Amino acid sequence: MTQSVTLGVDIGTSSSKGVLVGANGAILATAVRAHEVSRPRAGWVEMDGRIWWEEFVAITRELLAAVPDAVAAAVGVSGMGPCVLLADENDEPVRAAILYGVDTRAGAQITEMSAELGDEEIARVGGSLLTSQAAGAKIAWVAEEEPEAWARAVRLFMPASWLARKLTGAYVLDHQSASQTTPLYDIEGEAWHNPWWQRFAAPIEQPTLGWAGDIAGHVTAEASALTGLVEGTPVIIGTIDAWTEAVSAGAHEVGDLMLMYGTTMFMVFTGAETLRTPSMWTTAGAFAGTRNLAGGLSTSGALTSWLKGLTGTDYPELLADAAASGPGARGLLMLPYFAGERTPIQDPDARGVIAGLTLDHGRGDLYRATLEATALGVRHNVETMRAAGADIRRIVAVGGGTQGQLWLQVVSDVTGLVQEVPQITIGASFGAAFLAASALAERDGATPPVITDWNPVAQRITPNPELAALYDELYDRYLRLYAGTRDVVHELAADQRGA
């Protein structure tokens, strides 16, 4: 006897993850494939897009083998973004995929496009100014810098849409991802902005637009043979992992703010109105009728991983040492801009700074300062969102970093925010499976699942009011430290590029 399940797969920065979920939301099996990005030059972050499909196939086969009586009734897909994977007429990548805002190569194109189109008009049409997150500027970079690759480019993909293409043959992109191809998308019209598409991306066929939970198509015979999925199985369009992760935790309602603790830190506020501010990203929501104000730190888990490798220490030891160091890290203050910074300073030439070091400081102090630096970055983003009009009513924490109680507590203490942590923190793959189950229910006229039934709140992290004054002072110093070191740091960044 077989059991009907949904499959969710997410292509992340450091790994691809898959999950099989039963009808009641129970996780039946998980699978992971680790991978690494390529950094061929300073500011460049790439990945071979063919790996995304190879890992999807391997994960799907592993999951189906782990639960022999399972039949995937629907497939959910998700992935990091916004990415730029350009492919030829045979769907072969013309070059490695250029990743999201951590890739800062398109600075010249951002300057040129902003001068030509005007910042005010760019924000009016697309919601956001051009930053390292803007996929449209990276498309322009390929056109200008790699004419041989550009001459072969016919289609534009991101990880989720690449999987949908491989599975179903559909050439689609969700509105949320499209809204991050600035300046190629009209956020109020919810459509491609044809004048600027023709100006900067004319050779590329426009993907058909839909919403994250819409059905893109059905598994083809060829994809069935490769993956073991039943031919004709519906596949959703999917979206960028941060938005799918918000779905996984029920943090996608109006007034919700999701904090995603991962390799980078990502924040998504959901509202009903289009909010614009120069230092954040205004996007379409994952679902019709919603808008997002989003932000992200370029490093969070990547920074803790760096320090772990540097000290040759495991995480439990570092966390114990950091707890012993105590609030304020014994007078250390760090700027977490080790890979430049995205929001709200939008400074790809920012770099990490550690201030206050003495011979008395140890690894625990450094690790504590690292946790506090990411928390101060979150506070900077939250305060910028609120200044833009975001009515934040509820904060939900998701991602692998939520397994560290100290990090969660530091973020609450620094920001003054209560955080809700869901029971299941497996992430975007779980959200993709939920969207697939919802799409299947809608297609069949059945009662759709409810995410709070699948994934209830497990704990609430409340700030310690006794630390408010300490962290208010540290936040002021954090802002002043960046302002005071910016010029020198920019000179050092220029030297690094030259080297």
TrEMBL record:
It comes from the Bacteria. This is Sugar kinase. Residues 258-439 form the Carbohydrate kinase FGGY C-terminal domain. PANTHER family: SUGAR KINASE, XYLULOSE KINASE. It comes from Microbacterium keratanolyticum. InterPro entries: ATPase_NBD, Carb_kinase_FGGY, Carb_kinase_FGGY_CS, FGGY_C, FGGY_Carb_Kinase, FGGY_N. SUPFAM superfamilies: Actin-like ATPase domain. The keyword rRNA processing does not apply. Residues 6-243 form the Carbohydrate kinase FGGY N-terminal domain. Belongs to the FGGY kinase family. Keywords: Carbohydrate metabolism, Kinase, Transferase, Xylose metabolism. GO terms for biological process: D-xylose metabolic process. GO terms for molecular function: kinase activity; phosphotransferase activity, alcohol group as acceptor.
